[in-house]
Design a protein that fits this description.
The structure is a homodimer.
Chain A (H helix, E strand, L loop, with lengths): L3 H8 L3 H8 L7 H14 L5 H8 L4 E6 L10 H16 L3 E4 L3 E2 L2 E2 L2 H8 L3 E5 L6 H7 L5 E4 L7 E5 L1 H14 L5 E5 L5 H16 L9 E3 L5 H12 L7 E4 L2 H13 L9 E6 L12 E5 L1 H18 L6 E4 L1 E4 L9
Parallel strand pairs in A: 1-2, 1-5, 5-6, 6-7, 7-13, 8-9, 8-10, 10-11, 11-12
Antiparallel strand pairs in A: 3-4, 12-14
Chain A binds a DNA duplex through helix 2 and helix 4.
DNA sequence: TTCATTAACGAAAGCGCTTTCGGTAAAGAG
DNA sequence: CTCTTTACCGAAAGCGCTTTCGTTAATGAA
């Protein structure tokens, strides 16, 4: 690979001047700049990112940390949609994403250490566990960071309006005539889970609807299996709900399965409304009515927030609450 | 951040010795090594990846290039599953993944240029278009590379056994009594599409089954919409097939939708078998019978192949054909 | 004509690490 | 007791780039 020295030799200028020409310094004449640029072209010169970073202390990289809690990594459709949006926006500004492994040549180190080692300019984390010590360590570090899907950390945050989402779901169900509404919740240890519960309770309260015993049930970490189990418990109740708000689409799919296995049908016997609007939601039977999270916007805002911190060279404590939207499909029906 | 100089100063040794101690050189006594390691611990020293790479010419990073053809990027469930598996395996050896943006500080450059700039140790590409000039450029470069989902390039390749997959599908359909079997194909410009067509034809031939006019139809680039359109054409035929092998799960979902809209049902009227086994396949109605691609194995083999090249410091021309598997669910039925 | 600006360029140090090559002291061989 | 090994350590150069600060020449002002 050609270096800046080669360009210098070829053009007769110093490396200083070459560097300046490439970085648009004002103290290099237009004429020499053109000569240098031409040499660059001819020799196919490209700067070396490592050398550049070493000397400027800026790497033009952003570290991304995925929650590994359920071992899905970037297979998770909701998370990967956000990251994809984030990537597009960061890319526009010239940043590359780096997915760090935890193991630095077989010495197990923390994510923060790894990101420090790589000298990333910023970090984006998508992790549902607000207590995760790894996440806390990063939040407390000096590296700019934005965390997605949590809502009370001492750092920049981007999250959906989960309370509103919960209310939206309940109100919609109520508008269809339902009063016996249950909630298969996401684990309350996750912020998203807790907020949706809050929205559920609030809406029920405002509508003067009682929450029957057993109608608020923990569905764990949003998996299909857990959704199914929760629904099975609901079905064993003496007084089965006529509608259930499920805190995640995967769980909703599990719930629907449980209902079908019981010989009942959705939405005729029980209405189901999910949360997220993953791709699959539009294609299962019945097509899932759900609360759509705006992954494009979440990724966009996260990128903006992170880059703002990088530019200002200081951590900002900002929160962005992203609106959600009710998507009506076929899994909810008028109460009979 | 503490540097190697700080450690040197603190321990009284030279930076040379510190570096050697950290890299397990044999010419440093156990005693001084311990002292140095202790200082490292106390000061929380971490090496600087950029300085390291600059000096060793090895960055411990792997560049990943995603096909952008249909603008889904890492949202694509099949691709992201492969990358997730790849990541896990590369991580074990200490490599980080970097998703490069095409724009180097707003100067549009090629992927190859970008990866050269980042000095990645290797490249993995998942791209369905074998003609893509960007991909060709990378294949012809000196950087180790492995491409997934193509099968005749001058480089290391990992791909599913698509011919066998096609045969598997047809044979299964035939075993259910079907003879009027159609194929909604992936674009023949993609290797995967072409091979599945080959498998389809071969199997039909071996079974002495004729391929009726219009029974081999191009479904384009594997999207739901294209699958639907293709199926609609099939349904307009005078002699509608009783079973169709669809070259991708997304297309299969579209096909099923088209059939339902026509007032027919799957599998009672028409049997559908897909390809990929994406997560959704198990949850749509009817649950999709499909040919499963082993994404874990593909990712694993790709990682192995790439790291082998990196270690041997030379490009290898190897092909790994990964077996596929028939997953029987509910979208195919005995011919009536 | 002289002095102060301004424009254009380069020397050199620095970023943090690795690696070659020598050097010294201790140990072993004869 | 001398000579060769061996063990251990360090000086210094190099990786490719940026940036400060100085220098020189050309320009404008007076």
């Amino acid at each position: 690979m050609a270096t800046i020295y080669d360009i210098a030799k070829k053009t007769g200028f110093s490396t200083t001047t070459v560097s300046k020409a490439l970085n648009n310094y004002s103290d290099v004449s237009e004429k020499t700049k053109q000569k240098i640029l031409q040499a660059v072209e001819e020799m196919g010169y490209l700067p070396n990112a490592h050398a550049q970073s070493l000397s400027t202390k800026k790497s033009w990289t952003i570290g991304v940390m995925f929650s590994e809690s359920n071992e899905v990594g970037m297979k998770h459709p909701f998370f990967s949609a956000i990251i994809e949006s984030f990537r597009k926006n960061a890319e526009r500004e010239g940043y590359d994403l780096i997915f760090a492994s935890r193991n630095l040549r077989n010495r197990d180190i923390s994510y923060l250490e790894h990101f420090s080692y790589r000298a990333v300019d910023g970090i984006v984390v998508i992790c549902s566990d607000p207590q995760d010590p790894q996440v806390q360590e990063m939040i407390n570090s000096t590296i700019p960071i934005v965390v997605i899907d949590m809502n009370k950390q001492n750092c920049s945050l981007v999250f959906s309006d989960n309370i509103e989402g919960g209310k939206l779901a309940v109100n919609y169900l109520h508008s269809l005539g339902h009063t016996k509404i249950a909630h298969i919740a996401g684990d309350a240890l996750t912020d998203a889970g807790a907020e949706r519960i809050k929205g559920f309770k609030k809406a029920m309260n405002e509508l003067n609807l009682p929450i029957h015993d057993g109608y608020l049930i923990n569905g764990g970490l949003f998996s299909i299996g857990e959704g199914r189990e929760a629904m099975e418990k609901l079905l064993m109740l003496d007084d089965v709900p006529t509608a259930v708000f499920v805190a995640g689409d995967h769980m909703a799919i599990g719930a629907i399965e449980a209902i079908k296995e019981k010989g009942l049908s959705v939405p005729e016997d029980i209405s189901i409304i999910g949360y997220d609007d993953i791709e699959m939601a539009a294609y299962i039977t019945p097509k899932l009515t759900t609360i759509k999270q705006d992954t494009d916007m979440i990724g966009y805002q996260a990128a903006q927030l992170l880059m703002k911190q990088i530019i200002q060279k200081k951590k900002l404590i900002t929160s962005k609450r992203i609106p959600v939207e009710l998507i009506i499909r076929e899994s909810c029906a008028q109460k009979k």
